[in-house]
Amino acid sequence: MKIMKSKIFQVPIVLIALLMLFSVTACNNWLDVKPKTEEEAEELFSTLDGFKAALAGVYIGLSQPELYGREMSYGMVGILGQEWGSGATLDNSYSAYSYLLDYNYEQGVVKIMIDAVWNKMYESIANVNTLIQYADLKKDVLGDYYGIIKGEALALRAYMHFDLLRLFAPYDFSENAKVAIPYVLESKPVIVPQMTPAKFIEFALDDLNNALELLKDDPIYLEADVSGIDNGYMVNRHFHMNYYAVLGLKARIALYVQNPKIAYEAANEVVLAQQKKGLFPWIKTEDLTTTVMNLRDRTFSSEHLFAFNTVKLEKYIKGYFREFSTPLMERLLPDILYEADDYRHALYETYSGSPNVLTKFWQLEKVYVSGKGMVSPKRDRIPAIRISEMYYILTEVLMDTNLKEASNMLNTLRRYRGLDYLKNLTKDELKQELEKEYYREFIGEGQLFFFHKRMNTKMIATANAVYVLPIPDDEIDLGQRQ
């Protein structure tokens, strides 16, 4: 039993929270399926619906509060990025978040939180590895869906591993770097060796390149009309690691490891898809500023390359942004962070007597609209990769070679946020504006901590940042880690 605490030492047939789609509409009704033996896994993967269930289970597992439903977005990683200045979850001096503000990783409540991220992420990796294994064994079962399902699985494996690297490994891609964490490719009961960050990234990019080849059958890439086909399974591709989401992740990783050529090529392909194919369109002003407040598109959903469909988000944010007397409040208040005409000002409202409460993750109900009847808001979304990030990446990689074009990239985004063009910026000024944009755009989404880690910011706000989280004690002891 103790051995099983080492989550990289996994029995390959154990899949958690596998859910099967049975609805004939875009609404999803799921059946919980939990295979515990190899025979059950064989049965699950004997049908196309079984593969869909397994893949859905991975997405749903990642949407839990221990991962992207909270701690990997507005929760733990948001605290580490010094996004929040006050709130009930911070004001308690003995809470995990209060210790995380000071990068105190040794407190018991903090260790429990960090260990949960590690364990659940590697559990999800074990599950996706099992799916990948059976995708090749049962290729005839998948038929035309082979490329889509295996491509998404490979991309998810890279996505999870990369965030583990950003949390638990030093920012060192040199030849002399020490080994950090393992990149797990199979669901076998063996201890996987640690890798240097540079070697680790090779595996991640290899997964993404293979995923891109497989996802050339993706309807979003082919611009295919799939409405009404297969009960709508191929609709809403932004809730899946689609072709362009994989490119977006590739650009993010390449920028992190300081490979501007790959970062540019990947991000630019996504931007061209927006400009030439009309994909990931900028949010319409009226969708954000509408006086029907329940219907405001608070996460800018049209701009998502990939988002987690977090159906229990209303429950997860209680005590953080709603249903609490002192919600989380940003360290940088809106009047300081945003320019006067910025559309993003509309994301802040008064709640429980507190002004300037971030409403990005508020989960509001459908409302009656004259001439339209009952209209549902766009909700249950945690943004994971946005089109705006692609413009930021292009801005950054072009700074050294074409300052004018770099400024144009940033100004394009500013235009769709209601802001004037910035003119005649120096490189240092452009860097400063880009940092402001990361705060403005990604508040609550878990990207700021990693931005500062990449920039090697010595002090964030009033705390000296510690950018490497400790590997769980059980993993060190039982996994023979360095």
Outline the structure in words.
The structure is a single chain. It contains 20 helices and twelve strands. Strands 1-2 form a two-stranded antiparallel sheet. A hairpin with an 8-residue loop joins strand 1 and strand 2. The two termini are 23 Å apart. Helix 16 packs antiparallel against helix 17 and helix 16 packs antiparallel against helix 18. It is mostly helical and 482 residues long.
Keywords, please?
two-stranded antiparallel sheet, disordered N terminus, mainly alpha, 20 helices, 482 residues
List the helices and strands and how they pair.
Blueprint: E1 18-21, E2 30-33, H1 38-44, H2 48-62, H3 76-80, E3 84-86, H4 88-91, H5 96-101, H6 108-137, H7 139-142, H8 146-168, H9 197-214, H10 219-222, H11 243-256, H12 260-277, H13 285-289, E4 304-309, H14 313-316, E5 329-330, H15 334-337, E6 348-351, E7 354-358, E8 367-369, E9 373-375, E10 381-386, H16 387-398, H17 403-415, H18 427-442, H19 448-455, E11 459-460, E12 463-464, H20 473-478
Antiparallel strand pairs: 1-2, 3-5, 4-10, 6-7, 8-9, 11-12
